[in-house]
């Protein structure tokens, strides 16, 4: 079975609803996955916008997610904190999810939700690590990766 990442909020390649945007309610969409390798010990999720005018812009990282999980609920920043999942600091400077907010009139941006199954229970990154640092530390431990791309445009 292939490692797959899905969301009930939007399908791969389709627009992300305003609710999940920074100008909307700024809540993370629910995510669900299946097909992770049996030896998975933890997961990491990041969200990035490769179409940002200054280069890839990182919106979220949540990591050290138990390897037995198969989903994150909508609004996971609040729920994840309650479950003690650490968050990376995004490019807005915040240690939580910040949704799409491309510059007005810049056209459609793609938002890539990346999920990695890891061979370690904890990444051991320092508090306040940036999203990019979290992903870099995860790199050598990735057993499998799945992604989901949504689009968003601010007019």
UniProtKB/TrEMBL annotation:
InterPro entries: PEBP, PEBP-like_sf, YbhB_YbcL/LppC-like. Gene3D superfamilies: PEBP-like. Signal peptide: none annotated. It holds the Pfam family PBP. CDD domains: PEBP_bact_arch (cd00865). This is YbhB/YbcL family Raf kinase inhibitor-like protein. It comes from Propylenella binzhouense.
């Amino acid at each position: 079975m292939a490692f797959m990442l899905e969301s009930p909020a939007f399908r791969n390649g389709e627009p992300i609803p305003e609710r999940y945007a920074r100008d909307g309610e700024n809540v993370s969409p629910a995510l669900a996955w299946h097909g992770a390798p049996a030896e998975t010990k933890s997961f990491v999720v990041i969200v990035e916008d490769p179409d940002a005018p200054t280069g890839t812009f990182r919106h979220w990282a949540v990591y050290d997610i138990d390897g037995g999980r198969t989903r994150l609920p909508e609004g996971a920043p609040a729920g994840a904190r309650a479950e003690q999942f650490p968050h990376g600091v995004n490019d807005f400077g915040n240690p939580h999810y910040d949704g799409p907010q491309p510059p007005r009139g810049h056209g459609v941006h793609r938002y890539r939700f990346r999920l990695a199954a890891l061979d370690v229970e904890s990444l051991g990154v320092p508090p306040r690590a940036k999203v990019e640092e979290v992903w870099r530390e995860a790199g050598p431990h990735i057993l499998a990766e799945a992604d989901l791309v949504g689009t968003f445009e601010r007019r």
